[in-house]
Automatic annotation (TrEMBL):
Transmembrane regions: 6-34, 46-69, 102-123, 135-158, 170-192, 212-236, 242-262, 274-293, 305-326, 333-352, 358-384, 396-420
Name this protein carries in UniProt: TRAP transporter large permease protein
Entry annotated with the keyword Chaperone: no
GO (cellular component) term, any one: plasma membrane
Organism (species): Billgrantia gudaonensis
């Protein structure tokens, strides 16, 4: 049954049908194997039930906050601060790219939004600084992976809704891995700049300049504090945190005179379209996930990996390999929705902390965003840099490798993810 469903899904994707239609067609085939009489009753129930989760309402609110942040000019202020902090170093514009992604990650939580918003501004600047278009686009796509790791994270909210894991603990657990990713990509950029013989700007920023830039960016820097502190301290739920953040960013935009009514409306329209696409995919994937659970596929998967449950690192490596390959050919939200219910019982049996598992799965799914042939961030980076997609596919692999090395580091040392939640959770 599982292989037939996979074949049906691949055929529909290759035919170019919308992803949620491909998933629903796959679900119909699965129900035909299990019990055709369940189709009119269980499919609608699971389709709508899969998105009838209160915490999922945080997703459109955080997306809206990110769109309002761009419209309010706060993104430009963050990049201005990043330029002063690291722009004077060798390969400064590349470092600005990565640091801007770290800042931007604290509000949006979407790698694709990061690639689009920052790439259109930073890739031309990197070209002028002597970077090749391919490296500039690759670094933009690679550093965007920080977005779903540093809180807030759309993927973490989805994982939490599927496993009843604390969103606050997941958000805290993503901070250190996100910063490690940033350092890793800055190291890649420093190596490239040294190899290309790029010079430093020779001018370090003055304290007054840094102070003014930090003050200008302060409204944007406060937003992540509102998100994480409010959830961790129990003042607000993730959904309420998303609403507060969107309201806060909108008020900042109005106060700064940057957010007009037309900008606000455009942000709402963009958010609505993206949310509708995400929720349709989630609902269809939830239908398949329920069907696989009904057919006891997770139990069979547990039996298959039972000989390795005494070796948590081996389990995580196997789960990562499966997720990595799946993510190469499947949209990330649907991959997360389908794989998490199957992987979670195995991880519990192996004694793996659910928060640690959430970060590992999130990073795996995120890496798929820059992995050919389906990596969404690669296509966005190619579009904003006006580079042939095949050329970027050839040059993206070092960035994939660097992200995989960070993943292996997190698997080997769980304390890197669990330390902050244990201290502040």
């Amino acid at each position: 049954m599982t292989l037939t469903m996979l074949a049906v899904f691949l055929v529909h994707v290759l035919l170019g049908l919308p992803l949620f239609v491909s998933l629903l067609a796959t679900a119909v085939v699965g129900f035909l194997f299990v019990d055709p009489a369940m189709i009119p009753r269980m499919m609608p129930q699971q389709f709508f039930g899969g998105i009838n989760v209160f915490s999922l309402m945080a997703i459109p609110l955080f997306i809206l906050a990110g769109n309002l942040m761009n419209a309010s000019g706060l993104t430009d202020r963050l990049m201005g601060l990043a330029r002063l902090l690291v722009g004077h170093l060798r390969g400064g514009m590349g470092h600005v790219n990565v640091v801007s992604s770290v800042f931007f990650a604290g509000v949006n939580g979407s790698a694709v939004a990061d690639t689009s918003a920052l790439g259109s501004l930073l890739v031309p600047s990197m070209r002028k600084a002597g970077y090749s278009t391919a490296f500039a686009a690759g670094l933009t796509a690679g550093s965007s992976l920080i977005g779903p790791i540093i809180p807030p994270s759309i993927f973490m909210i989805l994982y939490a809704s599927l496993t009843n894991t604390s969103v606050g603990d997941l958000f805290l657990a993503g901070v250190v891995p996100g910063l490690i990713l940033g350092v890793a990509f800055m190291a890649m950029n420093a190596w490239y700049a040294w190899r290309q013989g790029m010079a430093t700007s020779g001018r370090w920023p003055q304290a007054s300049e840094l102070g003014l830039a930090a003050f200008a960016a302060l409204p944007a820097l406060v937003a992540p504090v509102i998100i994480v502190a409010g959830i961790v301290m129990g003042f607000v739920t993730p959904t309420e945190s998303g609403a507060l953040t969107a309201l806060y960013v909108a008020l900042c935009g109005v106060a700064l005179g940057q957010l007009r009514l037309t900008d606000f409306w455009d942000a709402i329209v963009t958010t609505t379209r993206l949310t509708a696409a995400i929720f349709l995919i989630m609902a269809a994937a939830a239908t398949i996930s329920w069907l696989l659970s009904y057919a006891q596929v997770p139990e069979r998967f547990v039996e298959l990996l039972a000989p390795y449950v005494s070796q948590p690192v081996v389990i995580l490596l196997l789960l990562s390999a499966i997720t990595f390959v799946t993510g190469m050919f499947m949209e990330e939200v649907s991959a997360l929705m389908l794989l998490t219910p199957i992987f979670s019982p195995v991880a519990m049996m192996a004694g793996i902390d659910p928060v640690h598992l959430g970060i590992i799965i999130t990073l795996n799914i995120t890496i798929a965003l820059i992995t050919p042939p389906m990596g969404a961030c690669v296509f966005v980076a190619a579009a904003v840099s006006r580079l042939e997609i095949t050329a970027l596919f050839r040059t993206i692999w070092p960035f994939v490798l660097m992200a995989v090395l960070v993943l292996l580091l997190l698997i080997a040392f769980p304390g890197l993810t669990l330390w902050l939640p244990s201290v502040l959770g």
